[in-house]
């Protein structure tokens, strides 16, 4: 983890007149090593029928994250940096299978980061139940025509055996009464004339 500034002290020849020989070797700590670490997160969507048999081809998607790893040359301790930015798995519409209905029409978009694990989803298809063509839909009576005991107030005119007459307005009725009154007056006058002639 360290490097000497003098890899070697050269050989030296001395005699009795020489003084002591002193050398200093200085060690510098080596630079930390920096590496790049990567991680892949997968999204897997399984499509199956109710009996767990495969209904459609499995969908897979993957995103990759990276970060730096710094290793101390002396202690060997590693220091990691943050993962790269979050990424998003796009929304996936479930395949349409004729005669079946998916319990999840769409898998929503999902955002993941480098700390997340793989994403696994399962879409199950149930057989679509079709309405029998002979089935009849019973309509409830109009609430306005149902009394407090739940019986239907509506009756047809035939059921009531009623004679249906044309509707006449009040003005038409007054006119008819007036005509009948006029005819009665004329008749009375004629009878009076004939009565006096007979006398």
What percent strand?
A: 25-35%
Sketch the major β-sheet. Answer: 5 strands, mixed
Total beta strand runs: 11
Low-confidence stretches: 136-166
**Overall mean pLDDT:** 81
Helical content band:
10-25%
**Helix-strand pattern:** EEEEEEEEEEEH
| Helix-strand category | alpha+beta
The best one-word shape is rod-shaped
The helix count comes to 1
Radius of gyration: 53 Å
Distance between termini? 162 Å
Strand order of the largest sheet: 5-4-3-11-8
What does this 3D model show about the protein?
This protein has 199 residues and is of the alpha+beta class. Strand 3 and strand 4 form a beta hairpin. It is built from one helix and eleven strands.
Quick rundown:
The protein has 199 residues and is α+β, with helices and mostly antiparallel strands.
Name some characteristics of this structure.
single chain, 199 residues, alpha+beta, five-stranded mixed beta sheet, two-stranded antiparallel ribbon, 1 helix, 11 strands
Topology:
Layout: E1 2-4, E2 27-29, E3 33-49, E4 54-71, E5 78-80, E6 87-89, E7 92-93, E8 100-102, E9 106-107, E10 110-112, E11 119-127, H1 170-198
Parallel strand pairs: 3-11
Antiparallel strand pairs: 1-2, 3-4, 4-5, 6-10, 7-9, 8-11
